[in-house]
Amino acid sequence: MSTSALTHHVRVLAAPGDRHHEILTPAALDFVGHLAAAFGERRRSLLKERRRQALRLASGSPLEFPLVTSAVRTDPAWRVAPPAPGLADRRVEITGPPERRMTVNALNSGAQVWLADFEDATSPTWGNIVGGQLNLLDAIERRIDFTTPEGKEYRLKGREQLATIVVRPRGWHLDEEHLEFDGRPVTAALVDFGLYFFHCAQRQIDAGHGPYFYLPKLENRYEARLWNDVFVLAQDLLGIPRGTVRATVLIETITAAFEMEEILHELREHSAGLNAGRWDYLFSLIKTFGHRTDFLLPDRAQVTMTAPFMRAYTELLVRTCHRRGAHAIGGIAAQVPGNDPAANEAALAKVRLDKEREAEDGFDGSWVAHPGLIPVCREVFDDVLGERPHQLDRTRDDVEVTPADLLSVRRISGPPTAEGVRTNLAVALRYFAAWLRGQGAVALYGLMEDAATAEIARVQIWQWLRHRVIDRETVLRLLDDEVAALGAEYPWAPVDDIRALFERTALTGELPLFFTPDAYTRHLVKRTEAGA
């Protein structure tokens, strides 16, 4: 794409940063502008449809497998594209933000895939967004080696030893306030996708892989169709053959679980499979049906993947993927090894059981949040896969899942414990503190927490208050305690802002859909404007 095509002007509203000019080139911004011009209005229409669907479900409309797409589900002939180079064997995938140190460590970790996460694991400060793009470009160009002031060296291994990069852009619901097109903020998903695709797609092809993506928080087949059209236009604009892009969709909303086959079908030329995004899935379930008493969830720690409705969801995902030739990737192991040998042993035992269930159910791989979990995850999948790169041949024809199975939450429904309430408050407040400071992945109480787990923490408090299984006075008293503890633990934290953010997003009558847009516009954008 030549600079002579500069007709879709995107304005940068932030001050220049170190090396930002290498990413925010006129041609790259014009490319993003093309995407914004082509898809901005359609994206806004789809977000309105999300709200209409939420109102329909809240008013009692049943959630069913769509009748209008039954022909897609019953047609045995269609398949997704075959696995792309670097994506045939995905038995261990590590996730993390595209920070410089994380980039080197993740690529060197021994995992088959690194999910470079601009979404839940990244606090979207302008520096993090552009810096993450720089780090990916530097990694592909092999110029990311560095030494810390303390003398610790970070060096990439040989290319054949590195994990395959798969980028997760932000969801459709978010804007990028630092870029403006036609008087509006540019859709954040198009910024993250567009900048990476413009700078790195051909470089990745030349290196033997390709431009690969994870797509978050899709709610239906129409949102998958939008992504597919984005891929087609992006490939056409840069002269890259159609079908080069590969995308794995996270099935992490309850409505998407009812359209798994349709989502694969919409993306089939570009599909690399589906992932069981367990934490966002629970978050979505509460957002969608939290007003109903039969969807009252107990403490997060008690909602395991063996719960009947979660088993239905994961088994349907494996069956759907494998009958269409797509990879099925399991959920994340979020444990963070520490200095206590007994605690580490217990954590690894829990991880092993979780991964054994996934591998035996037919998953082709799984996620970990920490390099220390890679050996146990690999060992489990090695035992099942052996030398095979995947187990797509296990079509799981034995699985039959009904809408009632996916919605059978009442079988584990129950009130929270006092410890569960306090833990949710502690996690949400501490995560908000880190997020507002620019850190999107945080180790708390032995787990790697990200925006998805903070979302569960706040919406559970909202749900428990709504159904009066806890009283507001108790929550406010515990909130006082946790805010005081937060201030003592993190003297730098803006405790008044953090408390206000929690109150706006968890203690209101109407549940805000996400905490991130509120926190982003009130705090991160203002911080950039102030030069912080």
Q: Any overview of this molecule?
A:
With 532 residues, the chain is α/β, with parallel strands linked by helices. It has helices spanning 20-23, 26-58, 70-74, 100-108, 126-140, 188-206, 221-238, 254-257, 260-266, 278-289, 308-323, 341-361, 374-385, 403-406, 418-437, 451-466, 472-489, 495-506, 516-529, and strands at 11-12, 92-96, 113-117, 146-147, 153-154, 164-168, 175-181, 184-187, 212-215, 246-251, 271-276, 327-333, 365-368, 442-444, 447-449. The strands form 4 sheets. An 8-stranded parallel beta sheet has the order 6-3-2-13-12-11-10-9. A 3-stranded antiparallel beta sheet has the order 1-7-8. A two-stranded antiparallel ribbon has the order 4-5. α4 links the parallel β2 and β3. α7 packs parallel to α9. It is globular, with a radius of gyration of 22 Å. The two termini are 34 Å apart. It catalyses: glyoxylate + acetyl-CoA + H2O = (S)-malate + CoA + H(+). Its EC number is 2.3.3.9. Pathway: Carbohydrate metabolism; glyoxylate cycle; (S)-malate from isocitrate: step 2/2. It comes from Streptomyces purpurascens. Residues 164-408 form the Malate synthase TIM barrel domain.
